[in-house]
Design a protein that fits this description.
Layout (H helix, E strand, L loop, with lengths): L1 E12 L15 E6 L5 E5 L12 H11 L5 E3 L2 H4 L13 E3 H11 L2 H11 L4 H14 L22 H11 L3 H6 L4 E4 L3 E4 L11 E9 L3 E9 L4 E9 L2 H17 L1 E7 L4 E6 L6 E6 L3 E6 L3 E11 L9 E9 L2 E10 L8 H20 L1
Antiparallel strand pairs: 1-15, 2-3, 2-10, 4-5, 6-7, 8-9, 9-10, 11-14, 12-13, 13-17, 15-16, 16-17
Helix pairs in contact: 1-3, 1-4, 3-4, 4-5
Length: 372
């Protein structure tokens, strides 16, 4: 069997025009992105360095999970217990699991829980913990981000951007534990503490799966959210909304806009002939077809390139359905889909007599060609 690249062609684009302009919202900055690859669908002042309040806690939890197990017990330090504003009223000397503190940090956005985690992982030194937060920010390309505290309360120099927060949320949502918690509206943890989310869109916006809210005087009403559509997850980050109600309206607008930029398209058509391979002994050519449809949630401005990798000739016997190549679909240089190509029919290997006749015929044709 001889393999070769048989096809290279522009497959299609959904529309020749660019994406529609982003919606108008009341915020200092925003960004809407395709959750699969971070492709920006719309943005405004997305690189502006701004306070981000409790959106910080996404990094706090990520750094915690690098060094601590959810079942680990934390002894709450007096300094953590003294942190106010949003809290779960931790008591100095209390022992509580990392899991419960993560729940409190993500659902209730509890500042005392975030500090308890920082002191625990930092072995009594919250500054050491924050340094790791900043190291991770640099490693992950969050160039607009600098952390000063593990909770995100207002302090000079503690900033990020809509772009960085969106990427941070995408990284956080790769963690199963985080994914399982950020779509919870209520939960109960140690001491009978009842947690309540600040994420008003949960249970209200279809397909919403998280991720984190934040509010301080300097940061305004901010949130990064993720919503699932058909085959795609869209992220929207809004920083500096004027009120909680306006943040909710504007964030829903951004998510709706993002989801509307996608269409479910059929990249591979079942039964279609994508290639033909030569058969030995003069038996013609074998059609190679796609066995199953392959659908993909594509951006409306997306252009695809289709590459066919298949044999130019095959050996016998061949059974119908035998895999003999594949279709690869690219968005630029990024592989977005692949599907096998299979034999459209069965072809048996000819017997000795038939092969002998074919060789005899080939010899005669070659002699005649030489004489002529």
């Amino acid at each position: 069997m001889k393999l070769g690249l048989l096809g290279l062609a522009a497959f299609f684009s959904l529309t020749p025009s660019a994406l529609a302009a982003g919606p108008s919202v009341q915020a200092r900055a925003y960004l809407v992105a395709d959750g699969r690859d971070g492709h920006v669908l719309a943005s405004e002042a997305s690189r502006q360095k701004l306070p981000i309040a409790s959106l910080t806690k996404l990094m706090t939890v990520l750094v915690t999970l690098e060094s601590a197990k959810p079942t680990d017990l934390v002894t709450v330090s007096p300094l953590a217990a003294s942190i106010g504003e949003s809290s779960v009223n931790l008591r100095a000397g209390e022992r509580i699991t990392v899991h419960d503190l993560i729940e409190a940090s993500l659902i209730q956005s509890a500042n005392d829980a975030a500090w308890a985690l920082a002191y625990h992982v930092g072995r009594g030194d919250a500054g050491r913990f924050v340094r790791v937060m900043n190291i991770r920010a640099r490693q992950w390309g969050l160039a607009d981000t600098r952390f000063v505290r593990p909770d995100g309360l207002d302090v000079f120099g503690h900033v990020s951007s809509a772009r960085d927060v969106t990427e941070l949320a995408r990284i956080a949502m790769r963690k199963p534990l985080i994914r399982s918690l950020v779509d919870e509206q209520t939960e109960t943890i140690s001491g009978g503490r009842r947690l309540h989310t600040w994420n008003d869109l949960l249970g209200d916006f279809p397909g919403l799966v998280g991720v984190k809210t934040g509010h301080t005087r300097a940061a305004g009403w901010s949130q990064v959210a993720a919503a699932r559509g058909t085959g795609v997850t869209v992220y929207a980050t809004l920083l500096g909304g004027p009120t909680r109600a306006q943040r909710n309206v504007d964030l829903a607008t951004l998510l709706h806009f993002g989801l509307e930029q996608f269409r479910l398209v059929q990249l591979v058509r079942p039964g279609s002939i994508y290639a033909r391979a030569d058969l030995p002994y003069g038996q013609g050519r074998l059609d190679l077809v796609a066995q199953r449809p392959l659908r993909y949630s594509a951006r409306v401005d997306q252009r695809f390139i289709e590459r066919i990798v298949a044999p130019t000739a095959v050996d016998l016997p061949v059974q119908k359905g035998d895999p003999l190549g594949e279709v690869r679909v690219f968005d630029g240089g990024r592989l977005v889909a692949r599907a096998p190509l299979v034999a459209a029919r069965s072809v048996e290997s000819p017997g000795p007599l038939k092969r002998a006749r074919w060789y005899s015929g080939e010899t005669g044709r070659n002699v005649w060609s030489w004489l002529s």
